């Protein structure tokens, strides 16, 4: 067999790329750091990278339904990145420069891509500009590869809409187990990066939509402090809770993305200005420490689990992980008196959804009204659209209960202001008090259960792969902290990840999709 044929066979089997000198680069589970080195040392081009991911999408997406739309300009953007790097233009050889990223379909891009939140009601609408985080990604040199699929309207249209389903793409499929849940609304972002259809992705979270899909897809998700990343140009649910964050295969990759998207945005000025004080000088990469767990105080809820049943079983399953945390130098603090905390969290979880009805109508109407063109201009229009397209939107099957309840609201009055005030107070006497009383650096929970404690107050959380059920379905471990504690959470998560190295590629793809490398 001659060398050329040997290289071709190797590339097919292992997902390898070769430059003129024949030095191989493996795309399989390639991390941002590896891609960065290969690009900067001419072992790889952005065009080759984009071509590989486009091939993966063509092969896998018919089964997984993880990508809703591919950017028709992706290869042109890759060529420009290659030219800029060869010319050594400022910023062309750092961070995410020349690296593809998929965005959840509720994050606006001012290009040939649609921004629809998975709904046909917003198809062919035209946004006035890139979302704030997209502007930052473009400045960082990232290549917008396309839009990831999602649960329609970020899972807010109705509780009857299945996780991972939207009218534009249909039902998303978990790459580890086709009958497993997709969980949350950033389903396509988590699935596509888990299945190696892209290098990195962005998701959004209001209450669990980054952490939950990350957990069931064996990937890392960071839900930042509200305001640390801009929400401008993102189809909203609740400005009080909405946050944009990375979903990637590793903590390191997620931190590369986080560094690129944090910071002040004049189009989301109040929240981003307030949160900008939390951003450390020099960014977050410096917190990828091999001894990040040393001395950290981590709280473990023993008696109850923030409203979840079978908490003792969940905790027993995680005992080996708790042992690893101790071995790495963490101090685990058992929190046994949880009745008061559970009561507060349970009340908050109900109240936040009551508040969201009012917030959603106001925020969505404002978003729709600023679109340059759109088939719909208000929540009322969306409801009418859905009724007219019942077959397309599966209204008779899935309904639009939350939309209809939100439409009945009449703005923020005395009752609503009191509810919002009580939510803020409950966060302070609940999660914040717990963290401060026990002097904790983070609260630890199995899977994404931390969501119940952190969502209403806008606190940060991070999920890391933690294992696989007997049927192969992944689950994660989550760490949550006080506002601005991303640096600590990254130290904790990175050290745990490096000590365990649990993540493995989805076996479903190897069994059913020949194009998977």
TrEMBL record:
Annotated gene: LOC140036722
Cited InterPro entries: Amidase_dom (IPR023631), AS_sf (IPR036928)
One Pfam family per UniProt: Amidase
Keyword list, A-Z: Signal
Matching SUPFAM superfamilies: Amidase signature (AS) enzymes
Keyword ATP-binding on entry: no
Domain (Amidase) ranges: 48-489
The protein's name: Probable amidase At4g34880
Gene3D superfamilies per UniProt: Amidase signature (AS) domain
Signal peptide segment: 1-22
UniProt keyword annotation of Signal present: yes
